Amino acid sequence: MRASGIAQSGMNTGHKWIGWFGNFGGPTQKGITTYANSPWQLNPFAGMLRDFVFNGFRRVVTQLPYSGIPFALGYFIYTWGNKEFAYVNSKAGHLAGAGEHE
C-alpha cells in the first residue's frame, strides 16, 4: 500500500517533479565560461618559504605590540612566581618568615 502524495523516492514532491535544488530542467544558459584547475596539477606549496620570509616576517613584526608585550609580561610574572615559590619553600625563606607568625 502506498500513501497518497508521496513519490517512490519517499519525498513529498506534489504533482510534478521539477528537479533537485538548482536543477529545474530549464534550458541551459549560453555564454557562460567556467574554468577549473586540476588539483593534481597544482603545487600548493610553491613559493611558501619565500613568501613567508618577506610577508610573514612583516606580519609577525606588526603584531608584536599586541602579542609580544603580554607574552613578555606573563613570562616575567611566571619566572618571578617560580623564584618566589622556591625562596619561600627554602630554609632561608622559612627563617625569614618565622617572625611573621608570632
TrEMBL record:
Superkingdom field = Eukaryota
Q: Where is the signal peptide?
A: none
Asked if the record carries the keyword Transmembrane, the reply is yes
- CC annotations in GO: mitochondrial inner membrane; respiratory chain complex III
Compartments where located:
Mitochondrion inner membrane
InterPro entries reported for this sequence: Cyt_bc1_su8 (IPR004205), Cyt_bc1_su8_sf (IPR036642)
Keyword annotations for this protein, in alphabetical order, are: Electron transport, Membrane, Mitochondrion, Mitochondrion inner membrane, Respiratory chain, Transmembrane, Transmembrane helix, Transport
Name of a matching Pfam family: UcrQ
* Chain coiled-coil ranges: none
The membrane topology of this protein is: Single-pass membrane protein
Outline what the protein does: Component of the ubiquinol-cytochrome c oxidoreductase, a multisubunit transmembrane complex that is part of the mitochondrial electron transport chain which drives oxidative phosphorylation. The complex plays an important role in the uptake of multiple carbon sources present in different host niches.
What is the similarity comment for this entry? Belongs to the UQCRQ/QCR8 family.
What is the protein's quaternary organization? Component of the ubiquinol-cytochrome c oxidoreductase (cytochrome b-c1 complex, complex III, CIII), a multisubunit enzyme composed of 3 respiratory subunits cytochrome b, cytochrome c1 and Rieske protein, 2 core protein subunits, and additional low-molecular weight protein subunits. The complex exists as an obligatory dimer and forms supercomplexes (SCs) in the inner mitochondrial membrane with cytochrome c oxidase (complex IV, CIV).
What is the protein name for this chain? Cytochrome b-c1 complex subunit 8
Q: What is the organism field in this record?
A: Malassezia vespertilionis
> What does the organism's lineage look like at the top?
Eukaryota, Fungi, Dikarya, Basidiomycota, Ustilaginomycotina
